[in-house]
Specification:
Blueprint lengths: L5 E5 L5 H12 L7 H6 L10 E5 L2 E13 L2 E11 L8 H15 L4 E5 L2 H5 L4 E2 L5 E2 L9 E5 L10 E5 L1
Parallel strand pairs: 4-5, 7-9
Antiparallel strand pairs: 1-2, 2-3, 3-4, 3-9, 5-8, 6-8
């Protein structure tokens, strides 16, 4: 982070309109059809585990964590992770993810799932779900379904569907 005074703070309901605008700029309206969005539809993100990033008073990023089930076990769904395009490649997304995951670990959560690009998320500990182990409720590229254990062994033996909590 060069020349930016970044502040991470818990997501509040007052942040949601700005986050919606940010998501529109970053992902467009087609995002609502994606499987991960459909899992979150109508479910509030966990306010204790979801964060926003500000540079000065400008909201430049947001990360939400939502409770789900993975193979019947409690887990968290990370995302959307959004960074305003002019502020990308400055470590904001990684800072938001790490804050959410560290807080989730401290709160006793064991496993995080997401749909995303493995090369980007691998650097913070995510890896591809082995083929056939977990399935999403809808069309999704299985190579993009990733997991990160917050507690060693949390993924061991999990099989089945990813669903709402």
């Amino acid at each position: 982070m060069t020349d930016l005074s970044l502040t991470l703070s818990p997501l509040t309901p007052a942040d949601l309109p700005a986050i919606d605008k940010l998501d529109d700029r970053a992902f467009g309206p087609g995002r609502f059809a994606l499987t991960a969005y459909r899992l979150r539809e109508g479910v509030s993100p966990d306010p204790e585990l979801s964060f926003v990033a500000h540079v000065g008073t400008l909201l430049v990023g947001a990360n939400r964590m939502t409770a789900i089930k993975a193979g019947g076990a409690p887990a968290l769904l990370l995302g959307p992770l959004t960074v305003d395009p002019p502020f990308r490649s400055r470590g904001i997304g990684e800072a938001l993810m790490m804050k959410s995951m560290e807080t989730a670990r401290a709160c006793g959560h064991r496993l995080v799932i997401l749909v995303g690009d493995e090369p980007y998320y691998k650097r913070v500990g995510f890896q591809r779900v082995p083929q056939g182990r977990l399935t999403m409720p809808g069309p999704v590229d299985p190579a993009r379904v990733l997991y990160c254990e917050l507690v060693e062994g949390a993924f061991e033996g999990l099989t089945g569907a990813i669903s709402r909590a």
